[in-house]
Design brief:
Shape: globular
Radius of gyration: 22 Å
Largest sheet: 8 strands, mixed
Structural class: alpha+beta
Strand content: 25-35%
CATH class of the largest domain: Alpha Beta
Oligomer: single chain
Number of strands: 22
CATH topology of the largest domain: FAD/NAD(P)-binding domain
Number of helices: 11
Distance between the termini: 21 Å
Bound molecules: flavin-adenine dinucleotide
């Protein structure tokens, strides 16, 4: 019988850092399950690392203060920076240029956050994951193995798993669930069946902006991934820039019945463009609070409109209220050739798929951003949709991230405990420390 101390769902940063910390705390017989053939989760994506308590975590959600957050991030940083291909890209100490940008943003009532940032690039992802895995000696990986249900048998937790059409059972004293965004809804449904409490949290809906790199270099040369936070005048909503990739590429995330836009950058090979997400935080209350379904409806609408592919629109067309079309997409006369798209989305009209309030908020924020970084609204600038961040399931937990069911802990993006690699790692460490402290 396969019997372990800790059963971990997901080999992303939350699961891997949890395993590293459990081992450091003297725990053995750890099992990590991942339905993919290669352990990594989102660690194969870009690897832009923000070491700042204001980015990627919510202090209230994790029930820690600023100092604890910075201390945990410092621990995570020590692991990352020992990987030789990881390089620092934003230096915040005594950086007068950052102060100048903050001042300009402030003049437009925009909050500006410049975190200490490091980057290893999508092309170094596998090497980085191997480096992390080499730190584990008491952890067994079950790859290509999907956890399909969680049960209770003889005082143990039991994972029912599927690998190559065959089912198997694995037992454990405790569970850490860190299924990422791709496994979030499976885990939400599964956890409800076994009585784990959860509810809906906010969702981020918006677009990815891609522009000629030259237009955004003045800011990204100082802060690799600058965070601008807007509070819109018309609706009073929160919009923010997120995941900036200087010299990067637009990419897609595949889900079962829709596709989402995202972006990354390689370490060794840069493009002529920069891209970043511009997202609007949406919370729903009465009579419909299901932010997941709201986001899925938007995503499916784009899937339909784009014939299965995301949609892209030039700012030049957007301003004129026109859809973009294949025939004029790279038109020289309209100056569209200044920015060649790095992803082959379908030219169309993004306003057909997004609610009017979100379009208003995004456009107001883009116009404000253009006052801070002039030139970003060049007609050639590309707006891709949909970019949606499903961090929308909230699991009430204690300060060790244990749920209402004793022995079941949660961490990472899929359970609403983080929004990014460093945050996911931090939450994995908190859960690991909680598991070790209470059960071993
Ligand atoms: C294109 C792209 C670029 C990104 N760039 C950055 C960036 O530069 N910086 C940054 O901080 N963040 C970035 N992110 C986000 C980052 O990847 C996530 O924040 C992070 O990976 C979350 O970590 P996690 O451990 O919570 O989940 P994940 O990394 O998503 O890992 C979860 C794992 O669980 C597995 N799983 C799910 N359900 C099951 C199941 N039932 N059975 C078995 N296995 C299961 C999944 O296969 C997955 O491997 C990017 C994301 C994308 C898509």
């Amino acid at each position: 019988m396969d019997d372990f101390n800790v059963l971990i769902i997901g080999s992303g940063p939350a699961g891997l850092f949890a395993a590293i910390w459990l081992e450091r705390l003297g725990i053995d017989r750890i099992a990590i399950f991942d339905r993919t053939q290669y352990s990594a989760g989102g660690l194969l994506n870009d690897g832009k690392l923000n070491f700042d308590y204001r980015v990627g975590i919510d202090l209230d959600e994790l029930q820690i203060d600023k100092k604890e957050a910075q201390d945990l991030m410092h621990e995570v940083k020590q692991v990352f920076i020992k990987f030789s291909r990881c390089q620092q890209v934003t230096f915040i100490e005594n950086n007068e240029k950052i102060d100048a940008w903050r001042k300009i943003a402030g003049e437009h009532n925009v909050e500006f956050i410049a975190p200490e940032q490091w980057h290893y690039g999508t092309d170094n992802g596998r090497q980085f994951v191997d480096y992390l895995r080499n730190q584990l000696s008491h952890t067994t990986f079950f790859l290509g193995t999907e956890v399909i249900s969680i049960e209770r048998e003889n005082e143990r937790f039991c994972f029912v798993c599927r690998k190559d059409q065959k089912k198997g059972k694995y037992f454990g004293k405790t569970v850490l669930s860190s299924p990422g965004r791709s496994g979030a809804y499976w885990f939400r449904d599964t956890s409800r069946k076994i009585g784990v409490n959860n509810n809906f949290g906010p969702i981020d809906v918006g677009i990815r902006v891609e522009l000629s790199r030259k237009s955004y270099d003045p800011i990204t040369d100082v802060v690799y991934d600058p965070k601008f936070i807007f509070h819109t005048k018309r609706h009073g909503d929160r919009v923010r820039t997120f995941c900036t990739n200087p010299g990067g590429r637009v990419r897609i995330e595949n889900y079962d019945n829709f596709k989402l836009i995202n972006g990354d950058a390689l370490f060794d090979r840069k493009t002529e463009n920069t891209n970043f997400a511009l997202i609007n935080t949406v919370s729903l209350t009465q009579p419909f609070s299901d932010t997941t379904e709201f986001g899925r409806m938007i995503a499916r609408q784009f899937f339909l409109l784009g014939g299965g592919r995301p949609i892209v629109q030039r700012i030049g067309d957007f301003r004129e209220g026109k859809r973009s079309s294949q025939s004029t997409f790279n038109s020289k006369t309209r100056h569209f050739d200044r920015c060649r798209a790095t992803y082959n989305a379908v030219p169309g009209d993004i306003t057909l798929g997004l609610p009017a309030r979100i379009v208003d908020n995004l456009w107001e924020s883009l116009k404000t951003l253009d006052k801070i970084v002039p030139g970003i609204l060049h007609p050639s600038t590309l707006l891709y949709a949909p970019e949606i961040k499903f961090f929308d399931t909230h699991f009430p937990t204690d300060r060790h991230l244990e749920t209402n069911i004793e022995g079941i802990f949660v961490a990472g993006d899929g359970t609403g405990k983080s929004r990014g690699i460093v945050g996911a790692a931090v939450s994995g460490i908190i859960a690991a420390t909680g598991i070790a402290g209470k059960y071993f």
